[in-house]
Write a structure and sequence with these properties.
This protein has 113 residues and is mainly beta. The protein is built from no helices and seven strands.
Length: 113
């Protein structure tokens, strides 16, 4: 599924298939059973991404809250600004690249590697 230049409260749910979104404003919830979520250009409140099997890729994102969860997949975030960022992956890596000069505080949940 492809979304381009959409605004509002957006809710996307696919059983199987990738979601590619660009130029999104508002809030976005993306849930895929098998497929990735690729977001390039988001400005808004809440960005919630959940894949059973697939990568989450974020570029050029500004949000109050970002929540990325993969059962089996990587989380990659580049040029993101947010108040809160939560990433969870059952089997995969998490990489977060922040704009220069942006401070952050990181915490690890007990029982996680």
């Amino acid at each position: 599924m492809k979304l381009d230049q959409v605004s509002g409260e957006i809710d996307v749910d696919t059983g199987s298939g990738d979601v590619k979104a660009s130029g999104i404003a508002g809030s976005l919830r993306c849930d895929t059973g098998s497929g990735g979520c690729d977001i390039d250009g988001f400005r808004g409140d809440v960005l919630s991404l959940d894949t059973g099997s697939g990568d989450v890729t974020l570029r050029n994102v500004s949000a109050r809250s970002i929540d990325a969860d993969t059962g089996s997949g990587n989380v990659r975030a580049q040029d993101v600004e947010m108040d809160s960022f939560m990433a969870d992956t059952g089997s995969g890596d998490v990489r977060l690249r922040l704009p220069a000069g942006l401070g952050f505080r990181a915490a690890r949940r007990p029982g996680r590697r």
